[in-house]
Amino acid sequence: MEQIKSTLQKFYKKSLWFKVGKLLPILMFCIYGSGSAQDADWPVLKSFDGDHIKAIAMPLGGIGTGTVSLGGRGNLQDWEIMNRPAKGFTPGTSHPEMRTPFFAVYVKKADKKSKVKLLEGPFDEGSYDDWMGSLASSAGLPRFANATFDAAYPMGQVNLQDDDMPIKVNIKAFNPLIPGNVDDSSIPMAVISFDLTNTTESSIETAVCGSLKNFIGNDGKNKNAKQNHNEFLKGEGYHTIFMNTDGVEKGSESWGTMAMSLIDANNVTYRTHWEKESWGNALLDYWDDFSADGKLEERRDNGEDMPMGSLATSFAIPPNTTKTVTYLISWHFPNRFGWSETSIGNYYTTKYSDALEVVVKELPRLSLLKEKTITFVNAIVNSDLPFEVREAALSNVANLRTQTVFRGKTGHLFGWEGSQNNQGACWGSCTHVWNYDLTTPYLFGELAQTMREVEFKYATNDKGLMSFRVGLPL
């Protein structure tokens, strides 16, 4: 078997796939530079408005890490971070309290009453439940009147505007994607920034607040959240609501940690808990608290299994000036089963001890990771290929970073044939699907090599018969 592996490596390194995969990032940097000057603004390949934004969900996450998706109106949906697909899953929508994740903004002009709105555009009015009303996340809360979406995967922008507000908002979200660099493209994190522009001739007091339920144990299919805990932590350049659990089974797919972090922020206030769920009272208590002055007061731990955490920063914006607030949402769920009855682990969780270490390790490199990602995206967006080719090539890279694809702790890449709503479809890194894959060998040659190694070393018997599906564990 070692001889097979050695022969395979020699063959692969002479192949076109390997050569292109290695040369592409070098060629892009030679042609487009480091991305520090003309590439400072985020690239846009296509813009969407009106009803079109209702169909958008852009995955934010790394290769083999799972994702959460940025919706077309600025909401976060499809929380697929716990080792399985979870289409349509937003934690909190199944309870009358409707404690779903959201971001909100507070604004106050001199001698005027403060205003608070969700940092989201209009929701889809077509989704209703017989007794709960709209199933859209936080449907009853005020929001911006207009939203558009600018896309150039893995970089999405939501543009919010409302005549009733003295600011306009540009939401920018991404996860690093750098051809030839697998680890930097496999970070379990969503980076979400809010550019707030004061459109008036006077200074305004402003605050941004992010709220996230600790739903560890609830993966969208299995609802096993129990004895979850939130903790406020502070470190070099960050303030964090760190989320863990004492009650979720440590061997389950949905056991792990999460973190919501504010980076490079001042005047930070927080809640590790909200008031106890009691229909709309807890939400009303939060809304009144944040609306009063853009700051939060802590609430006691009331023993809820899935406590809500909130993190806010307040500041002033001078006239016709833009301020930026950035949040990181990170996660760490080590027990991947794939199509196995035993855990094969996750490669990404061997790089970090928990969700907080993701922030500690990657925050100092965040600007460089963004710069290199923009360089790659611009290489596609600014090419002279037909638009349809650029759109198809760039957007479909997203498949490599969904729950269709995963890496065991050994580093080998595996893939389902596709994904159903809450489970993979057709097991085994099926060769009559994955041997047609071009994205992986062209952008991440070393990952494609691990798939060939699996086929020749683990899926081939002593008589030379290669199975078109590989079992797990290897």
Helix content: 10-25%
Mean pLDDT: 90
> What ranges have pLDDT less than 50 throughout 5 or more consecutive residues?
15-23, 25-39
In whole angstroms, the N-to-C terminal distance is 13 Å
Query: In terms of structural class, how would the helical and strand content be classed?
Result: alpha+beta
Q: What strand line-up does the widest sheet have?
A: 1-9-10-11-12-19-16-15-14
Largest sheet: 9 strands, antiparallel
Number of strands: 23
**Alpha-carbon Rg, integer:** 23 Å
Total helical segments: 9
Strand content: 25-35%
In quaternary terms, these chains amount to: single chain
Coarse shape: globular
Detailed description of the structure:
The protein has a 9-stranded antiparallel sheet with strand order 1-9-10-11-12-19-16-15-14. The chain has helices at residues 2-13, 16-32, 281-293, 355-362, 366-381, 387-395, 431-434, 439-443, 445-458, and strands spanning 46-48, 57-60, 67-71, 76-80, 102-109, 115-118, 128-129, 133-134, 146-152, 155-161, 167-174, 189-198, 204-213, 228-235, 238-245, 257-263, 268-271, 308-317, 322-332, 405-407, 413-415, 418-419, 424-425. It is globular. It is α+β, with helices and mostly antiparallel strands and 474 residues long.
